[in-house]
What we know:
Elements: H1 11-15, E1 24-25, H2 28-37, E2 41-46, H3 51-61, H4 64-73, E3 75-80, H5 85-99, E4 106-110, E5 116-120, H6 134-147, H7 149-164, H8 178-191, H9 208-221, H10 224-239, E6 253-254, E7 262-263, E8 266-267, H11 268-285, H12 288-305, E9 313-316, E10 319-321, E11 327-329, H13 337-344, H14 346-356, H15 382-392, E12 400-405, H16 406-422, H17 426-443, E13 453-455, E14 458-459, H18 466-483, H19 487-502, H20 535-550, H21 553-562, H22 564-569, H23 578-589, E15 592-597, H24 603-614, E16 621-625, E17 646-651, E18 654-655, H25 662-669
Parallel strand pairs: 1-3, 2-3, 15-16
Antiparallel strand pairs: 2-4, 4-5, 6-7, 8-9, 9-12, 10-11, 12-13, 13-14, 15-17, 17-18
Amino acid sequence: MPNRLAHETSPYLLQHADNPVDWWPWSPEAFEEARERGVPVLLSVGYSSCHWCHVMAHESFEDETTAAYLNEHFVSVKVDREERPDIDAVYMEAVQAATGQGGWPMTVFLTADGEPFYFGTYFPPAPRHGMPSFRQILEGVKAAWTGRRDEVGEVAGKIVRDLSSRELAHSGTGLPGEAELSQALLGLTRDYDEQHGGFGGAPKFPPSMSLEFLLRHFTRTGAEGALQMAADSCEAMARGGIYDQLGGGFARYSVDRAWVVPHFEKMLYDNALLCRVYAHLWRATGSELARRVALETADFMVRELRTNEGGYASALDADSDDGTGRHVEGAFYVWTPAQLAEVLGERDGQAAARHFGVTEEGTFEEGASVLQLPPDGGPLDTSVRERLLAARELRERPGRDDKVVAAWNGLAIAALAETGALFDRPDLVERATEAADLLVRVHMDAHARLTRTSKDGRAGLNAGVLEDYGDVAEGFLALAGVTGEGVWLEFAGFLLDIVLDQFVGERGALYDTAHDAEKLIRRPQDPTDNATPSGWTAAAQALLSYAAHTGSEAHRSAGEGALGVVNALGPRAPRFIGWGLAAAEALLDGPREVAVVGASTDPRTSALHRTALLSSAPGAVVAVGAPDSEEFPLLAGRPLVDGGPAAYVCRRFTCDAPVTTPEELAQALG
């Protein structure tokens, strides 16, 4: 019989709806139940495409004996971290503080007041490698709860006090300048992997936001070293196993430092961010590899992640059936030489093995290889990739998390709009517009408050957090610049006004949740960029862009105030503030404002508009339309020149003399 999770919209929660565990969703009722019964709360946090979440579910939560013990002695609460990043952030901070590490599934034991007192991540069903079994953990927690309740309460209270004392010491005195950005570049250079690209060792994650900073820094300063790090990292990833050489798109991370073997789940946010980075790399260098990867990644998102409602699903699982009934990681993606020969024939199979680096020994498990693109792999007939892709489609596909997350769709809108504009793919711009329409229809209420998620066109119950407002505004602003439709600028303004009203604290500090959000044991506040831009830095960039479009001093001041954190983090931890550094580059450059005035039917207007979009000026905003169009404040007072289209390049609404040809505009933006 299904448990309470059967009524949820989250695919992750629905995966546990038939567990024998009597799960509760996060709710006041769950904690009241624990209080009335006098038992602790087991909080289990994960997400749909999490490999070890699936493992622990199969081993423990589907086990009748374990479930019976949980149901008798605990109130069990299941949370999708992608739906409730605030809950995840608060308790992950406690886990990391107590254990020195974190991860998912996250396993935390709480009092009925939500105070944590014991922590962990994955626990096996039997003791393994010095790790206790999940049952041993449950029995130990129960014994402590029943025999040493006062001690448990003291521990929980101390943990909450320690977390509360960690209020961010925000360095908001002054804006990041040349010195701070130069120090950040030096820090990235120290961490740079000269042999394989990227930063640090294994596991290695795509450094999307740091790459965007490097590209912007090169454009503004001409620092060739910054461009080289970005270009070499992008090439290494594109040639590695982390990139799907048949279907396009990137896996979440590489388990090794050489990008060979990925953790095979594919996340919308990674692909949106990387699609944009590769498009911007092409814009800066003309790299054909960057062009191909940007377009293939955009096409992957549309083909495999687009929902029936026009939004974009969160993720594809890492696991699928390998053809023998086993559900294993990477089964959909890996190949052996024999499998290549079976599909292609002996001759083409051998050529494909050389081209994609497939060996008898294999690069993955059980003699299988992840497809790569080694430089010495040799040529390949153009039909081979299509034949392999068709054969792969006959395999069981990984599961898809169809949940639409507002923030990640904002990132996808920006990527698809810009990629479509740069490479003359109006279909991609249309897909971006459809996703934006969905966010307005389903995720925004009459007061422009955002809902975090939706599924099948139905909004979820969880309020949007700061990253939702920042990333969706970023997507709308990109779409406004590409389409010339001012309604997207207007919607971005609605969202950013809520940021000013609900998320800004003292001295420019930002919070991840709104002032009127559900109160947790601590109000989450994290400016560091991780796999995605933090809400803090996403909002800062969007505020600056909106101010460049409108001249709003309130939005610019808030954006500048938020970037004070770059002074504190950029010089000593640049890898974890990449989007903040990219926003700081835009601020140092202006950001520049380009107003293109002219009739939409005039090809000269289109040529100027395209030239503006092709500019690599950091964070530049573009408005296009008729002179004095009310849709874009940038167009006010910008007349035609000799009756024809013209472009104005401005900073803080102070403009240079207008230009009338693409060549002149490119020079003005150079």
